[in-house]
Fold:
Amino acid sequence: MANQEIQVVDKKELSPESAEITRNGVYFTPAVDIFENSNELTVVVDMPGINSEDVEVDLRENILTIIGDTKAEEFQGQELLTEYRTGGYYRTFRVNNLIDHAKIAASMSDGVLTLKLPKSEKAVPRKIPVACD
Amino acid sequence: MRSLIPWRWKEGRSVPENALTEFRKEVDDLFNQFFGNAGWLPGTSFSRGFTPAFDVSETDEEILIKAELPGVDPKDIEVDLSGTTLTVKGEKKEEQEEKTENVHRIERSFGCFSRSVTLPCEVKEDQVEANFKNGVLNLKLPKAESGKKRSIKIDVK
Structure:
């Protein structure tokens, strides 16, 4: 109880079974929150160290792909403590809802990518009033 | 199964002592199971905290610290330096109000964090540089004269 180790936020390296990437370098699986309401799907992705220009979001045939690229910095010196490695991020999701491709909005702030995927008209649930005579 | 048989006197080794240490370990484990990950204990974070990952490196002139803090507002980060102990603390606020939303996945962590690192040498306190970009905090701490590596050449005769 006394000497409990602190759990550092760990980055999982992309496992080759889930997806193979044809680029060089290390890729990690980013932590993701997904929320849904009746109008849209919100995907929040933690991608520390990625510039907004280096993020690629792609939705094709219900597969949402999120890629973040980074260039490894050159560093000369001695490393004292290394808990995380720098690398890109890669993750794909299968999106079931009908998404309005034209209205997808993506924003990036403080290393967090927020995607808003509005549902298309067909998928928005509609209440049908029942008239009675 | 063998561990169920407490000890065998025949062998004449210090078996009773082993059994005692084993028992002690079992009791410790029991306590750890009960209190170990308990978020409900007062004083411990309510499973809403997290510990950010740090990279610490040094060159001849300075110490560099990088911390991954995705989604933290730079205004909420506090960096303290006292002597050779550097503390980075702050809070990552949850931006998502969960009103009527269905939650499909929660993997990101929120809450308060605080982490202290002991620096390998004294630094110039007034010349510490900190910047925050794309969710990564970069700290540059120039070494004080006393902390710099000096190499003394000794002639071998």
In short: The mean pLDDT of chain B is 78. Chain B has two domains: 2-35, 54-96+109-147. Residues 15-35 of chain B form the longest helix (21 residues). The radius of gyration of chain B is 25 Å.
